[in-house]
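Saturday, quiet lab. Running sequence design on the structure tokens for the scaffold JK sent over.
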């Protein structure tokens, strides 16, 4: 198992990554917390909570679960199960369970220990790291949330074997993003192993996850609250989020940001920030990963959605744009005529 550590001024988080990591979880919990955990899972991920003490709190699967009513129900469950400030909350699942249980843990008794056991590729390379928690409101996604670092993250790539194909591919989009923004070698590993990638080769996945997590940890270490560098993680997301909104979330997140990376790379080319061959190479890998480059979305709807982006600063949308494979420039204000 590989262990990575995130040390911040007021917290420390250990991230264990590797096949068989899940089997180590009960021992890690016991040695770190000493108290029995309260486990939160969804119907598809409860199977990965079987080795832990006590019956898990099992929620319905899917994005609609990430709402204030479920948050309230979790607080109630914690109270009924006599969770106290020594009880670790263990979130076993994808980003939905992680964000929701994370929010609940960060607010219950003003904060109880949080452990993430991400079971989707997206959660393993992205959402379980960095300490953002959230629920959705009817008015928009992730509108209420907290920054709250987990104390422990246990990533077992073996859990990915049961992940539906479309969910798996959505995680690959994030891995491609990490390659584009920060890690040419990672990009090239995926580029030269597309068959293994499609076959979910465990060794390759473990390596990819370790690289992605390392990048995210390095970014969060210097910019926990997204005041600067953390913005680079939003490559493909400025347009991608707008596409998600404009299409009523019928695309997966990874599908939307794949289209977003294509379009944002196009803007970079038009602004003279990178040669067309960078975009061609990026898009070839996106396509090889089974992800889309285009979608039928009215441009006007995307533009309108982009104007509502919560990351827009005084009306100006700041883009992260590629210079080369593994290198981005930010923030870039894009001329309106290009949008
Ligand atoms: N906190 C952050 O920094 C951050 C970053 C990115 C995304 N997010 C959030 O993450 C959420 C999306 O996360 P997601 O893509 O993991 O979705 P998800 O949690 O809904 O999981 C996708 C589906 O896969 C199922 N599943 C999960 N693991 C499985 C497994 N091993 N085998 C079989 N089925 C499994 C789930 O039950 C669900 O049906 C969004 O709400 C997004 O806003 C948060
Ligand atoms: Zn994303």
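Result came back. Writing it out in full:
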């Amino acid at each position: 198992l590989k262990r990575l550590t995130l040390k911040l001024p007021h917290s420390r988080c250990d991230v264990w990554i590797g096949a068989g990591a899940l089997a180590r979880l009960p021992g890690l919990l016991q040695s770190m917390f000493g108290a029995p955990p309260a486990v939160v899972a969804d119907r598809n991920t409860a199977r990965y909570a079987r080795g832990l003490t006590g019956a898990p709190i099992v929620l319905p699967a899917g994005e609609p679960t990430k709402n204030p009513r479920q948050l309230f129900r979790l607080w109630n469950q914690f109270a009924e199960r006599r969770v106290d400030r020594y009880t670790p909350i263990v979130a076993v699942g994808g980003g939905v369970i992680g964000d929701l249980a994370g929010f609940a843990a960060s607010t219950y008794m003003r904060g109880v220990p949080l452990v993430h056991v991400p079971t989707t590729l997206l959660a393993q390379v992205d959402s379980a790291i960095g300490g953002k928690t959230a629920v959705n409101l009817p008015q928009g996604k992730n509108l209420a949330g907290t920054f709250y670092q987990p104390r422990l993250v246990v990533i077992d790539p073996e859990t990915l074997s049961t992940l539906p194909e479309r969910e798996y591919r959505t995680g690959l989009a994030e891995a491609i993003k990490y390659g584009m923004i920060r890690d040419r070698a990672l990009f090239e590993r995926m580029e030269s192993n597309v068959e293994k990638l499609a076959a979910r080769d465990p060794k390759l996945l473990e390596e990819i996850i370790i690289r992605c997590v390392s990048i995210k940890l390095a970014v969060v270490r210097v910019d926990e609250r997204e005041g600067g560098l953390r913005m680079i993680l939003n490559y493909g997301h400025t347009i991608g989020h707008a596409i998600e909104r404009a299409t009523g979330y019928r695309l997966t997140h990874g599908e939307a940001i794949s289209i977003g990376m294509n379009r944002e790379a196009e803007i970079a080319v038009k602004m003279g920030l990178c040669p067309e061959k960078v975009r061609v190479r990026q898009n070839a890998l996106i396509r090889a990963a089974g992800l889309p480059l285009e979608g039928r979305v009215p441009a006007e709807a995307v533009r309108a959605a982009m104007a509502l982006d919560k990351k827009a600063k005084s009306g100006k949308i700041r883009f992260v744009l590629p210079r080369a494979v593994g290198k981005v420039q930010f923030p870039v204000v894009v001329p309106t005529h290009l949008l």
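Notes for JK: Residues 99 and 198 are 27 Å apart (CA to CA). The longest strand covers residues 140-147. Ask whether to fix the surface positions before the next round.
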